[in-house]
Design a protein that fits this description.
4-stranded antiparallel β-sheet, globular, alpha+beta, 6 helices, 7-stranded mixed β-sheet
Length: 229
């Protein structure tokens, strides 16, 4: 049986009593399947905690897809941060800050960048209506920030708050004109195919798109997305 979270006004809920089997959102999320959060804006379920699966970027993705699961695309990761910031601050804080005792931790993102000599292209995956996962490839939005931004170096970092508020392309990438902040940003590179990751560590928060998809560093983890539970 598929379980879903449906948001409904309390007066409408009263009309359903005795006709529909339901439970309150808090009860729903506290059960076993409550290890996932429903993100209404995307209608997907995202794991609250990071998981560690052995393999490089492509091997991990292939395994998840075989289970009708996937990594978060950059746009989905941004929506996850916005939703947890506004509704589940404890999970939001854990997503942008390292766990106790961890000097460095990174989260894989479903964002593969390629350069054809003229333009950047973004490849990612999306859920179809039947829950299957399909690959998408698009030209990178022209408003995407392509310059590196480092806090304390040249010239500066970008504001995470500004990025989450309105400073994103439809694909989830930072745009030009963001306020200064402590989120380091490493943009797509022309030298090779690369993938995205979000780093968190002591005095470090970094959004990077210069990761080698063939590597599998021990600090690299992932968050699982599902269409249905």
């Amino acid at each position: 049986m598929v379980k879903r979270i449906v948001e409904i006004e309390e007066k409408e809920l009263e009309k359903l009593k005795g006709f529909v089997d339901y439970r309150l959102r808090e009860d729903f999320e506290n059960e076993t399947f409550g290890k996932f959060i429903h993100i209404p804006s995307m209608n997907i379920y995202v794991s609250k905690e990071l998981h560690e699966i052995k393999g490089n970027h492509h091997e991990v993705s292939k395994l998840l897809h075989s289970r009708k699961e996937k990594l978060l695309s950059l746009a989905e990761f941004r929506e996850f941060l916005i939703y947890t910031r506004d509704n589940l601050p404890e999970i939001y804080n854990s997503a942008i800050s390292p766990n106790a005792g961890n000097s460095l931790e990174a989260e894989r993102l479903d964002a593969e960048i390629s350069w054809d000599g003229k333009s950047f292209y973004l490849s990612y995956h999306a859920f179809e209506d039947n829950g299957e996962v399909s690959r998408k490839k698009e030209a990178l939005d022209e408003t995407t920030l392509i310059k590196s931004k480092f806090f304390g170096l040249s010239p500066f970092g970008i504001s995470l708050e500004d990025y989450l508020k309105e400073g994103s392309t439809i694909q989830g990438f930072p745009q030009h004109g963001l306020k200064k902040g402590d989120l380091r940003y490493v943009p797509p590179q022309k030298k090779r195919i690369s993938v995205g990751a979000f780093y968190r560590g002591k005095d470090l928060m970094q959004l990077s798109f210069d990761e080698n998809p063939q590597l599998n560093p021990s600090y690299m983890k992932l968050r699982i997305a599902k269409k249905e539970l």
